[in-house]
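Check out a protein:
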Amino acid sequence: MFFNIFNKNIIYYINMIIFIVLIILISFFIYYIISSLFECDTFDNNKKTIYGRILFDQTHKSIIETGSGASEFLYYITLYKLKKFYNVKILYGAKNIIIDDVEYINFKGNDVVKELNNIPIIVHKHFNHLIDLYNINPNNKYILWSHDHYYSEKKKAMDSFIKNKIPIVCVSNYHKKHWEKKYPGITVKVIYNALFPEFFIKQDNIQYNKDQIIVPSGWYYRDISKVLANCLEYYKINNNFKLILITPNYAPKDAKVDTKKYPFVNNIGNIKDKKEYCKLLQSCLCVMSTSSPETFGCVYAEAFHLGVPVILDNSVESGSLEIVPKEQTCDFNNKDEFIKKIEEYRNNRPKVSLDKKFYETAIIEDWHQFLLVR
């Protein structure tokens, strides 16, 4: 009889343990399902929601170390920083995911846009795509963030921009004038590109090489002929001189200058690590521009933030002239003036800093104020 009671007790306790384990497993399963379904509950119901739309599959995390161009990097990081004021959702080309309270939604078709109403949607530089979205649902507040002079825009699309007063956010006053001249009646707002200090860390222990100058990543798509011709003449005076060229990740692999013709050139290629990029800039006497007009000139803002001076070609109108003071410019058509400026820097390198109006705090506030009235 004792053994019967003992066996019954064992069976009872075993059943209880099994029951408790099942309850725990079911609880974990339910928690997992609920967490998956309501992952976006991290969003603040008291904040307004804004959307972004970009034809890429990166996120604000993954874009950092890709060595991408400034346009993509700044778009992602700017939207990420706007989460201070808004719930941010980005329509892009990869899987649905939430990172740092920014919701990334795979844009498979038109359903997402159809379901929105009166929502600001900031579209990355693709004019024609924005008009496609507008035609799907004109009830949203579309904004085109433009970083380029042009981006394959079609006349029909631009007519729609003008007719429906769809704003273009440009990155300099020069850029604004450029668009207004080409498309009279267009609605344009100027918001400078932001410098995000957390990605451009200055190191105080780096000694610069007075014989080393760097041309930024966009040289392959711009006019570098004057720089090379002038530097070739300078090399005859200073055969220790080196000109470093770097390229963005989308440049062709053969994006190199002929070092037999220009033996002072160092083709470094693409630099994905921003820490290495910053070290390289700081190790140079200065940053040199090309002779092509730029809508802004992010690398010059980055250089000033890092304490590196600039030599800018003032013979071409450019948004970069809104960043770089007159004292750090010269006419690249004038060889003697060009060489004199280099020697001036070698003898007395200018101390520089970036105006606070170009930093993250000011620019994100500018975006916030602009979106408040949308």
